[in-house]
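seq:
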Amino acid sequence: MQMLTTSSVLLRPAPPKITKTPFSLVISRPSLSTHALGKKRSVQETVQLETQKEEKRKHGDLVLYSIAPYSLVLASKLLPGADIVESIFGPFVDLIKTWSLPEWLVHWGHPGNMAVVLFAMGGYGTYLGFRIRLSKDPEEKAKAKDLHPKLLAGMFFFFALGATGGITALLTSNKPIFESPHAVSGAIGLGLLTIQSILPALFKDYPGLRVAHGLLGSSIMTIFLIHAAFGLQLGLSF
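struct:
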C-alpha cells in the first residue's frame, strides 16, 4: 500500500516553472476594423468640410468681406436718422414700385451710373489737375485750368444726385440706407468734395493751399474708389 502511494506521487506531473522578468511590457493595438472605421470617418468629415466651403464660395458668402473696416460700420450710427429720410423719400419710392421696373435696373442702375461719373469725370478731372501743376505747355495748361473745375463740379453734382438714387434703390428693395460702410464713405467723400470746391476761392490770398488742394483731391479719389468697392459688396449682399 505504501508502495502504490509513492509511485503515484512520482508519476504526478511537475508544476510548470514560472520565470519572472524584471519588466513586463503590454502593448495594446486597436483592431483592424476599428482603425479602418476611424480612417473612413476622417475621410467623410474632410469631404463634408470641403463641400461646405464650396457651397459658401458658390453663394458668394466671402466676397470682399475682408476689406470691410468695422469702424465705418460703427460710424454709420452717427448719420442722420433714417426714419426722417425714409419719410421724405416714401412717396417717390411708392411711385417707383408702381412702375414695375426690371429688378436688375433697380439693383444695379445706381452703381453703373456712379461708376461712369467716378472714372470718366473724376478720373479725367484728376488727370487734368496734375497737368495744371506739371505741364510746361502754356496752351495745355490753359485748357486744363478751364476744364478741370468744370469736370470736378459735375462730379460733385452727379455724386450728390446719385446719393438720392442710391437711397431710392435701397428703399425700393426694402433695405436699410445708413447701416453700411458704403453709406459712411459716401458721406465722407461728399463732405470733403465740398471743402475741395471752396479751396480755389482762397488761392489768391493763400497760395500754399494749392498744394493742399492737390493732396486733398488725390485723397478724395482714393476714398471714392474704396466707396465703389463697398458699393459692389453691398450690391452683392442681396
